[in-house]
Amino acid sequence: MRKPLLLLIICIGFTIGSKSQNPMTLVYDTNNVTNIISQLSGLKMTDFRKFAIDKNNTYWLASNSGGLVSFDGLNWDQLTVANTDTVIPDNFINVVYIDKDGTKWIGNQAGGALKITDSDTTKFNTVNSNIPENEIKDIVADKDGNIWFAMNSTGVAKFDGVQWRVYNTLDGIPSDFTNTIAYDAAKDEVWVGTQSGAAVFDGTFWTPFTTGNSNIPSDLVFGIAFASNGDVWFATFGGGVGVKSGTNWTTHNSGNGVPNNFISSIAIDKAGDVWVG
To answer: What's the number of CA atoms in the CB half-sphere (13 Å) around residue 70?
Structure first.
């Protein structure tokens, strides 16, 4: 029987939600897991950054030094610069994202972006495309199939399959140093979290939210998630969790139930529980 190992390997989290009145820590069985991962070029559980699941229920993991790792329920595989004939441009991968067509988008620390389909791979870097830089922090797609990239120091880049469009502080984003990007399908809005606050794009304008103009608990925003009631949740580094409900803000921190104010990831499950790590 297949075990949902990887979500449990990647992080230990706790929940904030209607069904979880008290913080809850995930417990995972480490039998054989550590040994299996150590066989992947010496990788440790803490070397994994983000993961995605494809239509075949194969897990794809971005690793900090071991390239792109996959697990199909039985077998592990590892794609690196050395064993893929340079298909993988960089073994240091920040993010893997799978769009609605099943295309895998890889964001590297120094090698730009990689697009992997069932039949082809395409690299995007500052030499062969108009991508603004080669370090990508996060990736997401919108309903129209545009791919949005959170860049390390040049803002946000949108790719429609042909053209690149870059948004930065001149467009209203609070900082060109970004950490995360997310798409709110219900509202057709793109959100970015940066080193100086968050911002939302409505298709025309960016609206920033910082500690200077809102009650967001910290300007260091590392994760964004959307609740079914329209609330927007923010994982902040130093301020705990912020919740935007229309024009109102709520903060969850070490003073009211969150065990740590330094939050780097956030997700909301189908039951409406909010998971942070």
So the answer is: 14
CA-to-CA dists, residue 171 to 56, 180, 203, 209, 219, angstroms: 39, 17, 12, 14, 18
Count of Cβ atoms closer than 10 Å to residue 142 Cβ = 19
Rounded Cα gap, residues 88 and 112, in angstroms:
10
Q: pLDDT digit string (tens) for 137-163?
A: 999 999 999 999 999 999 999 999 999
Which residues, listed in sequence order, are joined to residue 93 by a DSSP beta bridge?
108
Structure tokens at 198: 């968050």
pLDDT at site 43: 55
The pTM for the full model equals: 0.85
Any idea what DSSP says for residue 160? Answer: -
Strand-pairing partners, residue 181, are: 192
8 A C-beta contact, residue 268 and residue 233:
yes
Smallest CA-to-CA distance from 156 within 141, 174, 128, 176 is with 176
Query: Rounded to 5 degrees, what are φ and ψ at 169?
Result: -60, -25
State how far the Cα of 181 lies from the Cα of 156, in Å rounded to an integer. Answer: 9
Which residues lie below 8 Å from residue 221, measured CB to CB, with a gap of 6+? Answer: 179, 180, 193, 194, 197, 198, 234, 235, 236, 237
